[in-house]
Inverse folding.
């Protein structure tokens, strides 16, 4: 008696086999420059592996994700039509967060956009994360221990590229809630055999005392929290720049492409800050990362790990690809996961891609100017559009401003929408200078309110800086 073929299981096995082909189970680096030989693959080799993975993942998604099956059928596309990067770009429209939110609402609580079902979760479930974006319904993602191994290797490549070596001691300063960045780094540090000083459950003063007493070399935190902690240390009579810290692994917020921010952070700590860029949906491990050359040119950049993902940029209105070198929104095809291998997911950060060779020896694409201005965060005030990072650049341009700021939007009684920016400064006159800087960058008039230094709230997670209380009617 013959048994019917279970296409879901068959395509899952095929996808597992392809992924395992390119998994390195390293606890030690390749050499003193690279964690993995994949870091220096040629662009032809990268493209060939991308094509191989797309040919396997398309049938896997069709058979194991209701969201993708319905999308294939609605578009009249067969899984075999997607067999290469070129065929993917030609046939598959960008997937948006709105589509995922609608699927989550229709199929609570997990939606059908991932391929980790109840059976996989019960058999090898690892961690459950939710999207941390600013729009709509949270999108939940369950990841397996199969995924974890791939996260560890991708993150190790990024951390090693950023400078971490034997002898470094990491101090993660996050609450270890549903924070993809923190958990991914935590597991990777263990894989790299690097010691960790747990930093959760402490206030800033306790963490400052830990730095003084136990001498970590590496902070793992958001940029805004690194600013806050440095300020607290100064209030305690300690000098962050004289501490043991020489690396800051930062994630969760744009910073290295924001004019004035990375310089101010590195001056505060006398340490190098490196980027760790990704998203919960399609790049839960590191997708964009720093190399030794990332601050050497006229503008900072991040490398994008192309052997495990396809990165592209699209026009914000038409969502069609823009030419290499033109500014657009990031789109990621994740080819490194059992649970969330997304096809052309709109991450939505602005950057310019470059395929020019890097002096570090890596041939993977670079995001020039790093990642700034997520499309979700675009502010439209009286017809003038700008991003919070433009306000941040204006604040950083005025000497003596504090590390935090707030953007408050409201509607006056006469119906006019207005903006007030709160800054920290010891001199009330600084408000005029920040007002001028904002107008020069955003071409908009706004009020700037000066508050006492260190009076705005701080967070160890993503800083909340935009408060939109306008009438939506």
């Amino acid at each position: 008696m013959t048994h019917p073929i279970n296409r879901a299981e068959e395509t899952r096995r095929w996808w597992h086999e392809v992924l395992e082909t390119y998994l390195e189970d390293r606890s030690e680096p390749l050499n003193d420059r690279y964690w993995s030989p994949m870091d220096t693959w040629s662009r032809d080799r990268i493209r060939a592996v991308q094509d191989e993975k797309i040919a396997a993942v398309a049938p896997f998604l069709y058979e194991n994700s209701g969201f993708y099956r319905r999308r294939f059928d609605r578009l009249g596309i067969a899984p075999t039509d997607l067999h290469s990067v070129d065929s993917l770009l030609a046939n598959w429209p960008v997937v948006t967060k709105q589509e995922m939110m609608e699927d989550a609402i229709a199929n609570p609580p997990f939606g059908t956009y991932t391929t980790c079902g109840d059976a996989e979760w019960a058999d090898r479930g690892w961690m459950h994360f939710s999207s941390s974006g600013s729009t709509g319904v949270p999108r939940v993602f369950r990841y397996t221990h199969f995924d974890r191994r791939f996260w560890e290797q991708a993150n190790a490549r990024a951390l090693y590229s950023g400078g971490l070596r034997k002898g470094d001691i990491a101090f993660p300063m996050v609450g270890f809630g549903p924070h993809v960045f923190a958990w991914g780094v935590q597991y990777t540090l263990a894989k790299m055999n690097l010691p960790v000083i747990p930093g959760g459950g402490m206030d800033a003063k306790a963490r400052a005392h830990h730095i003084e007493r136990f001498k970590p070399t590496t902070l793992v935190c958001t940029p805004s929290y690194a600013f806050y902690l440095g300020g607290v240390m100064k209030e305690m009579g300690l000098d962050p720049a004289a501490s043991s810290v020489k690396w800051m692994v930062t994630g969760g917020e744009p910073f290295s492409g924001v004019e004035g921010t990375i310089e101010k952070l590195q001056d505060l700590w006398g340490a190098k800050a490196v980027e760790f860029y990704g998203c919960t949906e399609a790049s839960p491990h590191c997708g964009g990362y720093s190399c030794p050359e990332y601050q050497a040119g006229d503008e900072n950049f991040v490398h994008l790990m192309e052997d495990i993902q396809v990165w592209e940029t699209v026009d914000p209105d038409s969502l069609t690809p823009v030419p290499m070198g033109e500014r657009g929104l990031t789109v990621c095809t994740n080819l490194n996961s059992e649970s969330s291998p997304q096809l052309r997911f709109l991450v939505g950060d602005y950057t310019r891609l470059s395929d020019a060779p890097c002096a570090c020896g890596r041939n993977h694409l670079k995001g020039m100017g790093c990642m700034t201005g997520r499309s979700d965060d675009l502010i439209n005030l009286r017809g003038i559009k700008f991003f919070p990072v433009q306000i941040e650049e204006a604040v950083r341009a005025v000497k003596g401003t504090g590390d935090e700021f707030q953007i408050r939007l409201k509607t006056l009684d006469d119906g006019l929408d207005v903006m007030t920016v709160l800054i920290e400064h010891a001199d009330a006159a600084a408000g005029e200078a920040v007002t001028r800087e904002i107008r020069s960058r955003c071409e908009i008039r706004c009020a700037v309110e000066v508050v006492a230094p260190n009076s705005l709230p701080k967070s160890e997670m993503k800083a909340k800086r935009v408060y939109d209380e306008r009438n939506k009617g």
About this structure: The chain has two domains: 1-372, 379-469. Residues 200 and 347 are 29 Å apart (CA to CA).
